[in-house]
Design goal:
Blueprint: E1 4-5, H1 8-30, E2 35-41, H2 45-60, E3 64-70, H3 76-88, E4 94-97, H4 107-111, H5 125-132, H6 141-154, E5 161-165, H7 172-181, E6 185-189, H8 196-201, E7 205-208, E8 226-229, E9 233-236, E10 245-248, H9 253-259, E11 262-263, H10 270-289
Parallel strand pairs: 1-11, 2-3, 2-4, 5-6, 5-7, 7-8, 8-11
Antiparallel strand pairs: 9-10
Bound molecules: guanine.
Length: 291
């Protein structure tokens, strides 16, 4: 079997186009332009790339982008003061603090200082609780993007066996909640899971979010299963020349493709959907703020 490739890049382009239509209507009918504030503390190169990309796509969708770049030694109280200002700024409908933060800052405190209505990451404890109890929540962007691709591919997910590998607050836990909400039977596996291969082999849906390059080989995958690869890992690529690198997922793409029914590629799978969902969440936050 050769798996169908789930084209996250094309899907994300459609989501962004829908967002742009909504933004045009909000401007024309209500005179409102949604605004997204992104806060970056420090100079982590990967975070800089993500933040630049978020800003660019926000503007391309017709929204306002406000970037706040703070030095790595910014104090907790200065960061909280900025968040307070953004919470009360009527032009800002969504607030995202790029993670990870430098070690001296308390991530939980910072995230929970964001107004939950503006929490477009869905990381605030209120949104976590709303999602966990099946209420209307702001949903974290990466798992939301994964769910949209799964629903698009399968229609109903009801009754399917899903294994989420990884238990992070950003991806693993909310992904499991979303799959449960769609009536899957969900297992969360992680680094201490015994017989991980056997657990994964039972799954109709595998979501890999561990951050370990090519950790999941094809012989862990049940024939015909759908594989959603959240990993984005940069590895050496000596075959491309000295000092060259390439991006790989958490799944070994070549061998998984031989067994799976469908798979998301890296790059071009989950990654583009994350930012598209961030834009969609910003429009949602703007609509909720304006009744
Ligand atoms: N760092 C890695 N992924 C994310 C994300 O989805 N949101 C934020 N704020 N930081 C991240």
């Amino acid at each position: 079997m050769t798996a169908q490739i789930i084209d996250g890049k094309a899907f994300a382009a459609r989501v962004r186009a829908d967002v742009a239509v909504h933004v045009t209507r909000l401007k024309a009918d209500h005179g409102i332009t949604p605004g997204l504030a992104v806060v970056l503390v420090g100079e982590d190169p990967a975070s800089q790339v993500y933040v630049r990309s978020k800003g660019k796509q926000t503007v391309e969708a017709g929204m306002n982008s406000y970037e706040h770049k703070l030095s790595a030694d910014t104090s907790q109280s200065d960061l909280l003061t900025l968040i307070d200002q953004l919470n009360t700024d009527p032009a800002v409908h969504g607030i995202l603090v790029q993670l990870p933060l430098p070690g001296h800052l308390n991530e939980d405190l910072v995230i929970n200082a964001i107004d939950p209505v503006k929490d477009v990451d869905g990381f605030h404890i209120s949104n976590v609780g709303l999602l966990g109890t099946g209420q209307k929540a702001m949903v974290p962007c990466t798992p939301l993007g994964c769910l949209m691709m799964l629903r698009d591919h399968h229609g109903s997910l009801s009754g399917m066996d899903a294994v989420v590998i990884g238990r992070s607050n950003i991806v693993g836990k909310p992904m499991a909640q979303l799959l449960l909400g769609d009536s899957c039977t969900v297992t969360i596996a992680h680094s201490r899971t015994k017989n991980l291969a056997d657990v994964v082999r039972l799954a109709d849906i595998v979501v890999a979010a561990v951050g370990r390059p090519e950790m999941v080989p094809g012989d862990w995958i049940k024939p015909g299963a759908t594989v959603i690869d959240v990993g984005i890992n940069r590895v050496d690529a000596p075959e491309k020349g000295a000092d060259k690198t390439r991006l790989v997922g958490d799944c070994h793409f070549a061998s998984c493709t031989e067994v799976a029914g469908a798979i998301t590629p890296v790059p071009g799978g989950v990654g583009p959907m994350t930012i598209a969902c961030l834009l969609a969440n910003t429009v949602t936050a703007c609509c909720r703020a304006n009744g």
